[in-house]
Amino acid sequence: MKNSVKVHAALFVVALIYAANYSISKDVMPRYMGPFGLVVLRIVGAAVFFGVLSRLIAPQDRIQGRADNLRALASGILGIGLNQLLFFSGLNLTSPINASLIQTIAPVVTVLASVVLLGEKITLPRLLGIALAAVGAASIILSRGPVAANGQDGLLGNVYILLNATAFGIYLVVVMPLMRKYHPFTVLARIFLVGAFIAVPAGWQQVLAPDYASFPPGIWAAIAYMVICLTIMAYLLNNWALKYASPALLGAYIYLQPALAVGIAVALGKDTLTLAKALQALLIFGGVFLVSRKPRATPDSAAIPLEPVQD
Fold it and tell me: Which residues belong to any copy of the EamA domain (predicted)?
């Protein structure tokens, strides 16, 4: 009973951390720092943290063999580099509610990737779920929202978030064999290192550009939140909870994150919830629910973990 409470607490805190990020990031971007600059700070900070942690906890563990090293390379590119660059680029242009809802289709992409890459069974309910989620996501992406701060319409931002969810969904399928074979910190240290080689060239100029002396304490707190809580703490809590949580419980928390994100964005005045967005959310949630139901006789596999290394 005590452990069950801890698992729920850990998963709730993770969902809350991710949900709050949609609104907190908007305070920093683009006024104080560009999206790629934030990505560099996150990835480099996490690469150093997990690199040190892996050497302390699993010093003898090494990713070996050409196939596993290529898988780690692909995981770092998809799950860390492209994933975060696309997410923050999209969030910089679109609204917190749109971003949180579109990102929810990552489990749908994961199932499609499992069908293509692993030969997993596709069923009629899953096909219906994919169609529902696709309609919901497409309606959000194509809807004209408020113009972003830099004068661009949110359509491009919505597309970036869709690509971010796609990259993350494929990453989950690619990285899972590594997570089962090696210590998680060994895998994270490697893939964040790979991600750093992508993010640093793309965002270094945005790291150098800001006038850091002019940053108010609230902005420093927001940046610290994204580096420490969003990237490091959320993963550690989620990784621990995955050892004890059932797939059904993990699935429930998939829906909690965007619900919290909507509540936080509306409460802080960062976004507004309309009837159209509520209907779009129902379409996506219904699709993800159908897709997440495992067909019978399918070998048990791990449920969808984390964000973004997301967002």
Answer: 10-141, 156-292
